[in-house]
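Protein 1 of 2
SEQ + STRUCT:
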Amino acid sequence: KSITEIKNYQFINNYHMDSIIFSDSVKVIGEKSFSGCSDLKKVTFTTGTTTFKKDAFINTRYLKDVYFTGNASDWLNLDFESFDSSPMSSGEVLYFLNANGVFEQVEEIEVPNHFTSIKPFTLTSINNLKKLVIGNKIQKFEESFYGSDSLKEFYYKGTLSDWCRVEISSPENSPMCFAEEFYCWNDSGEKELITNLVIPSDITTINRYQFYGFKQLEEIHIGSSVKTINYQAFADCDKIEKVYISSSIETIKSHAFSFTTVGDVYCESQSRPAGWQIDWNTIATNVTWDYQEK
């Protein structure tokens, strides 16, 4: 009889298991079914397995290689109930099966254009991931992305205006927090590396965490269309040299520029407006008021 489900706690604290191969018949991996399998180093599963219950692979700290017989689209359709449901919460290297039937390290993932959301924890801790491409139908990052320290390039296949409308639930859920370079598409349909940021004229609000951790950002121009800059919108951006802020901005929330090394801030307002929180900027000391940008 084929096994269709690994039951809850089935192999908990099995210290002798170092490798697992799941047959195509296994659909569900139960809660904490491999929790504490401290010698586990390799896991292989197929597209037949679709559901990973809560903490299925928690405390498998020596897990290194995770082999999956599907492609990126198949992986993104998996259901992980928690961070530690995914073998990648502990695993170091993820492999997909290529068209030639050979496993290869996953260094690039392109989310198909028809995806309107990314399932929770599917892009968690893929430590060999170097390039991520996401379409502009994705409007929210919530528990889908976390901890890919190797990420070099993040491509958002929309305009800067599109990106400014994306909702981010926490900094760690945004690829921008980890990527070294951020690209989006300009109005001419050309890919563009963003280093000097001019907020588009159709944007009135900069969402919380919108540009958090943007590593290559050097200069920011926030024009008259913007009325509100939310909490930690530009926090943890290490290379900012200049920020220009229009007098039209009525509200800047706490820590909008916290943990950010800023050379100079130029504000058109004559002094700090009442709607700007006193801790809107916790780093920059060179603030010029009543500045008129030429």
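Protein 2 of 2
SEQ + STRUCT:
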Amino acid sequence: ARLTGKKLSPHEFWRGLSRVAKLSRKPTPLFDSAPVGNLPPELVQFLERTNPWWRAQPTKEVKKYKRWAFHEAMSRLRLDIAPVVVIRGPRRIGKSTIQEQIVEHLLLIDHVGPQRILRVQFDDVPGLGSLGNPVEAIVRWFEENVLKETLNGSAKRGEVGYLLFDELQNIAQWSEQLKALVDQTSVRTLVTGSSALRIAAGRDNLAGRMSPIELGPLRLSEIAGIRELRELPSFMPDVGIEEWKKPDFWLDLSAHGQKHAKIRAQVFALFSQFGGYPLCHATNVTDVNLLRQQL
């Protein structure tokens, strides 16, 4: 019930457990070594190394705690309101971690085939200089050598592909390339980036195609979660402004504040001492100067 949100009969439970066991069997690699195709060999090696699920290899250990933006990004990808979901925020705030968590969720929870997921970290990728249109070239290579069909063909069969681009805004004409891709392709795309000015500059080209998420420092509830303290829930986070006009809203808010006053004060003290970056709360290091240097 904790996983499914509903009470299962014994028959439903064992049938579900059997299905999970089948799905959790060791996956089959798509290939022993990725074909070079039309990309520079060093770029193909990079893509193969950073997409280990293609070869049924484990990913690096993914952080367990999920920030609020993980759930928001997953929701927007599923709703498919806009073809591109963008998470924007400063470096070291957890954007790349969210990408890793989404890949893990797609593979293990949603059972998306590994051939349908492409992740590219554009701040590290080699061999882009020889490509006139890197986004199109990489996606075309992915279709031909990993997916083994077009993204449109896969989507038409009900198996939509996922493209996860990190720091895409660092390449020239990134928004024009992304617009051309999503205008012609049925695919779910997540872009994360730390340059607010460059991402903002691409909004005109991606008007109506981009759903932005602004990710800032940790919320107090997130600090409590990362440090595995007692839960610090938000009070009616999605309430409309009309509720603010009702006396009961403020009475309930006051009661909520009093109920969680002790844990809130404890977490606020941690925030005041260590700040709002995930690294500062996901480690046993207490030397503030050392943490500042690392950031």
